[in-house]
Amino acid sequence: MTPDGTSALDQLDLLIVGAGFGGLCMLTKARAMGLSARVLEASPSVGGTWYANRYPGARVDIQSLEYSFSFSETLQQEWQWTERYASQPELLRYANHVADRFDLRSGISLNTRVTTACFDDADQRWEVGSTGEDGEAQIWHARFVVLACGPLSTPNTPAFPGLETFAGPVLHTAAWPHAPVDFDGRHVGVIGTGSSAVQVIPRIAQQAAASVTVFQRTAAYVVPAHNGPLDPVQEARVKADYQGFRARNRQMRTGFGSDLPMNPSSALTTSPEERDAAFEARWDAGGFPLLWTFGDLMTDLQSNALVAEFVRGKIRRAVHDPATAALLSPHQPIGCKRLCVADDYYETFNRPNVHLVDVSKQPIEAITPGGLRTGGREHTFDMLVLATGFDAVTGTLMRLDLRGRGGLRIQDKWRCGPLNYLGLTVAGFPNLFNIAGAGSAAAFTSVILSIEHHVDWIAECVAWLDSQGHATIEATDEAESAWVAHVNAVAAQTVFLSCNSWYLGANIPGKPRVFMPLAGGFPAYAERCKAVADRGYEGFSLGAPEGQKKAIALTPD
Fold it and tell me: Where would I find the H helices in 437-476?
C-alpha cells in the first residue's frame, strides 16, 4: 500500500480510456517507454468501434493495407488481410491479434466503465473512478490521462415521439446485437442514409426481407469500393517497401491514397473531355480518391459542382426508376458530408422489395406500434433499424464527469464548442491528452495514422517533461483560442461549411454548431505539432513538482 492508502497498481503514469486502436497503440508505446499504464474499457472486448458496429455489411472505407498499424514491421508483414476493404469481423480479429501479439491484455481492464475523472490540484495527479462488471467501484490515480474513446463511439438515437411504443425489434447500427438477426420474411424500416446505412441496406435487402423501406432526409453521395479479395500482387508490392509506402502516405493530405495522388490542376481549366475521363478513372478505381481528381474540388464550389454532377449521372444510370433516382441524387456539395464508400447501394433500389420515402420536407412525425408516420401517412413494418450515426467527436466526453483545475467541468468548458489546442489538449485540464479528438486532422485521415501520430507526440511529450523535471503540462488560453480560430479559418476556405454534417454537430439537437475537425491536411498538421514541441512546447504552461508554472509563449508564424 502507498501512504495514501491506495495500492501500487492504482498509482499509474498513464491511465488510458478505451481499448480500441488508440488505446492499444498508447499502451504498447507506454510499455516500450517503461511507463506504468492501464487501459479501462467499458466493453467486454478490445476493438472499440469495430466491436460495437457489427451490423451486416460493416467494413472500413479505407483500404486495409493503409488502415493498419505501422509501428511494428513484423506486425505489418505477418498480418494478411483477406479483402481490399476489411470487414468488421476481420478488423476485430486484427485488434485481438494486436492485443495478443504484444501481450497487452494484462494491462487492460474490460467491462470497466470510467465514471469520473478529476484533476487533484494539490497532488497534481488525476483521480479516476470506474465501475466494473460486478458494479464494484474503484479509484485510480495517474499522472496523465489519455482519452482514447474514439470520435465515433456514442450512438445517436434521435428522440422520435413514440419510439418506445414500437411493437417490434429496434436495432441501432452502432449497437448491433451479437446474436444473428433473421430478416427472412420481415418488413424492415430503416431510418438514415449515411455511411452505416449505405452498407447495411443492401445486405438487409439481400437477406430475404419481405420489404425494406428506407426513410431518407438527405441523399448521400456513394462512390463504389469495388471490394473483393485482396490482390496478392498489390499486397506483395506494398510489403516489399511498407516503410516507403507509409512515408508516401504521410505526405498526402489524407494520410492515405498515395497510389492515386491529388492532381493539382483545376477542374475548371480542364477540358470537359479530359475532366470526365479523369473522373471516370477515379470512379473505376473506387473510394475517396475521386475527391482529389483535381486540386480544387474541395475548395471551389464551381469545381465541386462538376464532380457532384458526375456522380448524379452515375445515379441516374444505376437506378431504373427516374423518380427514385431523383430522390437519391444529392444537391449539397459533394464531400461537405463524409463521402460514403460502398458497393451496390444505388442498385439496391431496383429491387422490388426496396422502397424509398423522402422525409426532407415532411419529417418523421412519430414512431407508432406498427411503423412510422410522416406527412400524415402511416408506413408499416415490423422491424426498425436506426442508422442514425453518432454524437461524433465530443459526445463521449460530454457524457463523462470530467473535471480539470478547480473542478472545471468539461460540459462548462465546451458549452459553446470544443475548445482545444492542437486537437490534443484542453486549457484548464492539465496532463490530459485526447487522441483523434476535436481540432485534430483525424476525421479527414486514415484514423490509425492519426492515432500513431498522436501516440508518438504524447509519448515524446511525457518523456520530455520527465527529463526537464516538469510535473504538469497545460495549454494556455491564448494558444487554445488561436488554435480554434485557425481550425475555423481553414474550414472557411473549403466546401465543408456548405451543408449540415456531423463535422458541425448538426445531427444532434442543441449541440453547438462548430466545425470540429481540422481540414488543413495531415502533413501541415503534423509539422505544426512538431514545431510546438521543438520550441519547448510553446503555447503550454509547464508546472514544476512544487506547483510553480512557466508559460511558453506562442511564436508568430
Answer: 447-468
What value, to the nearest 5°, has the Cα angle with vertex 447 and ends 65 and 224?
60
User: In which residue are the cell numbers 458497393 written?
Assistant: 343
Asked whether the beta carbons of 131 and 113 are under 8 A apart, the reply is yes
Give me the residue label for grid cell 453547438. Answer: 512
Ranges of H-type helices in 62-208: 73-78, 88-101, 195-206
Residues composing the chain: 557
Tell me the backbone φ, ψ of residue 118, rounded to 5 degrees. Answer: -130, 135
Instruction: Give CA–CA dist 366/355, Å, rounded.
Output: 19
What residues are paired with 74 via a beta bridge? none
Of 502, 514, 510, 513, nearest to 196 by C-alpha is 502
H/E element, 305: helix 301-318
Residue 119 pairs with which residues in a beta bridge? 126
Cβ-proximal residues to 152 (8 Å cutoff; 6+ apart), any chain:
49, 174, 390, 392
Taking phi first (over 0 means left), then psi (-120 to 50 degrees means alpha), and beta for anything else, what does residue 77 get? alpha
Q: Poorest-confidence range of 3-7, 31-35, 173-177?
A: 3-7
The SS3 assignment for 141 reads strand
Between CA 156 and CA 153 the distance in angstroms is: 10
The CA-based angle 461-464-468, given to 5 degrees, is: 140
Task: Quickly state the pLDDT bin for 554 (edges 50, 70, 90).
Answer: confident
- From the CB of residue 233, how many other CB atoms can be counted at a distance below 10 Å? 8
pTM: 0.95
Q: Is the pLDDT of residue 260 over 70?
A: yes
For cell 506494398, the residue is 238
